[in-house]
Design goal:
binds zinc ion, 14 helices, single chain, alpha/beta, TIM Barrel, binds L-rhamnitol, 414 residues
C-alpha cells in the first residue's frame, strides 16, 4: 500500500473520506494578491509606500514593471495548487505613459491584466481601490478628509474602481470582489472622533450610489485597529464598518492582522455568518503588530479554515491573501503562504466535524477534548502530498524558485 492508501484507510476509520476532501479542496478559490511581488509599490508612479503599512527588507529581484511582475506571478502561480483568483490593486493600472489620475482610471488600463490572467488560466480577478501612496492623501486622510476636493477625488476613484470591477466580472463570468480599505486616522489624540466618521459614511454612500451592478460586484469594507504613524485613532474602525456594511447590504472584510492580539478572526467568521451572506477575508500573519508576515500553517490559520469548512461556508467566505515580505525571495513568500492556506483548508476538510459537533451538543467534553487531540496526529502529510501530485506538483517548490532566482531575478539590478 502507498502512504496515501494507508492514510485514507486511517481517516476512513475515523469517518473521514479523503477523496471527498481532495475533491472539495480543489474547488475552493483563493484570491492571491499581486502585491507580494513588488513590495506594494504599484505601477502608477508613486514609487513609495504610504498609509501606515510597511514592507521591510531589501531582498534582490523586486518586480519593477508589468512585464516583470506578470512573469513572477506566472512562475509563482504555477507552483500553487488549487483554484486561484488574482487580487489587484488600482495602483497596478497599466497606463503606458497616459496622463490620467486614479479618479479617472478605466477598464482599458487593466486590459493587459485580464489578458494575462486568462492566458494563465486564472478563475477571476478581484479588485481594490488604492487609497494610499498618492499625493491626494492629504494630512493622512482620503474619504474622510475635511477638504471637499480631496474627498471628491477619492469618491471618484471608488466609482471608477466599481466600473473596472464590472469589466472584470464580465471578462471572467464571475463576480468581482472590491475591497475598500483606507489609511485615514491620527497619530495622536484626536479632538473630534465623530465628524471624520460621518464624512467617511457620506463618501461611501456617494460611491455606492453610482449604480454598480450588485450581481457582478461584491463590495467589502476592511476595518483596522491602527497603523504605523496612525496609532491613536482609525476612522474606519471595526464597529464603524460592521454597522455600515449591515445597513447598506454590503460585506465586511476581516483581516486577521487588524484586531487586538487576543481577538480572533476565526471567532468573528461565524458571528458574521449569522447575519451576512458573504464574508471576505485577508489572511495574513501579524508578528507583534500588523506586520503582514508570510502566512504559515499555524494554529489560528487552522481555526480560520475550520470555521469556513465546518459551517459549509466555502462559497460564502471569500478567501484572499494579504502579506508582503521583502526580506526573502518574493516568489517563495507567495507560494509558501498560498500553500499554507490550502493546507489549512485540507486539514479542516479531514476533520470528522459532524462527530465532534455531536459530542459538543451532548456536552461530552471529555470525549471532545480527546477526539480533537487525536485529529492532530492523523497522517495529514500523506494526503497533502497526494493532493499536490494530483495537481501536478511536488512538495518541493524551492528548487524551481532558486533556479528562477538564478536565471531571472539576479539580472534585475536597481
Ligand atoms: C492594510 C490593509 C490592506 C493592505 C492592502 C495592500 O493594513 O491590510 O488590505 O494591506 O490593501
Ligand atoms: Zn488587508
Amino acid at each position: 500500500m502507498t502512504a496515501y492508501e494507508l492514510a485514507a484507510k486511517e481517516y476512513a476509520a475515523s469517518g473521514v473520506d479523503t477523496e471527498a476532501a481532495i475533491g472539495r479542496l480543489k474547488e475552493i478559490p483563493v484570491s492571491v494578491h499581486c502585491w507580494q511581488g513588488d513590495d506594494v509599490i504599484g505601477l502608477d508612479g508613486g514609487g513609495s509606500l504610504s498609509g501606515g503599512i510597511q514592507t521591510t527588507g531589501n531582498y534582490p529581484g523586486r518586480a519593477r514593471d508589468f512585464a516583470e511582475l506578470t512573469a513572477d506571478i506566472k512562475k509563482a502561480f504555477s507552483l500553487m495548487p488549487g483554484k486561484k483568483r488574482l487580487n489587484l490593486h488600482a495602483s497596478y493600472a497599466v497606463l503606458n505613459g497616459e496622463n490620467v489620475d486614479r479618479d479617472a482610471y478605466r477598464p482599458e488600463h487593466f486590459a493587459p491584466w485580464v489578458q494575462f490572467a486568462k492566458e494563465i488560466g486564472i478563475a477571476g480577478i478581484d479588485f481594490n481601490p488604492t487609497y494610499f501612496s498618492h499625493k491626494n492623501v492629504k494630512d493622512g486622510l482620503t474619504l474622510s478628509s475635511p477638504d471637499e476636493n480631496i474627498r471628491k477625488f477619492w469618491v471618484d476613484h471608488g466609482i471608477a474602481c466599481l466600473k473596472i470591477a464590472e469589466s472584470f466580472a464580465d471578462a471572467f463570468g464571475s463576480p468581482c470582489m472590491v475591497n475598500i480599505w483606507i489609511p485615514d486616522g491620527f497619530k495622536d489624540v484626536p479632538a473630534d472622533r465623530l465628524t471624520p466618521r460621518l464624512r467617511l459614511k457620506d463618501s461611501l454612500d456617494k460611491i455606492l450610489a453610482c449604480g454598480y451592478d450588485r450581481s457582478k460586484v461584491v463590495v467589502a469594507v476592511e476595518s483596522k485597529v491602527f497603523g504605523i504613524g496612525v496609532e491613536s485613532y482609525t476612522v474606519g474602525s471595526n464597529e464603524f464598518y460592521q454597522n455600515y456594511a449591515a445597513k447598506n447590504d454590503i460585506c465586511c472584510l476581516l483581516d486577521n492582522g487588524h484586531y487586538h492580539p487576543l481577538e480572533y478572526v476565526s471567532d468573528k467568521i461565524p458571528a458574521l455568518l449569522a447575519f451576512y451572506d458573504k464574508v471576505a477575508l485577508h489572511v495574513t500573519r501579524g508578528v507583534r503588530w500588523d506586520s503582514d508576515h508570510v502566512v504559515l500553517f499555524e494554529d489560528e490559520l487552522k481555526e480560520i479554515a475550520k470555521e469556513i469548512v465546518r459551517n459549509d461556508a466555502t462559497d460564502k467566505v471569500m478567501i484572499g491573501l494579504d502579506y508582503f515580505d521583502a526580506s526573502i525571495n518574493r516568489l517563495s513568500a507567495w507560494v509558501t503562504g498560498q500553500r499554507a492556506m490550502q493546507k489549512a483548508l485540507l486539514y479542516a476538510l479531514l476533520i470528522p466535524n459532524d462527530k465532534l459537533r455531536a459530542l459538543q451538543d451532548a456536552a461530552a467534553f471529555t470525549d471532545l477534548m480527546v477526539a480533537q487531540e487525536e485529529v492532530k496526529d492523523m497522517p495529514f502529510g500523506a494526503v497533502w502530498k497526494e493532493y499536490l501530485s494530483r495537481e501536478g506538483l511536488s512538495e518541493d517548490y524551492l528548487s524551481e524558485i532558486k533556479q528562477y532566482e538564478k536565471s531571472i531575478l539576479k539580472e534585475r539590478t536597481e
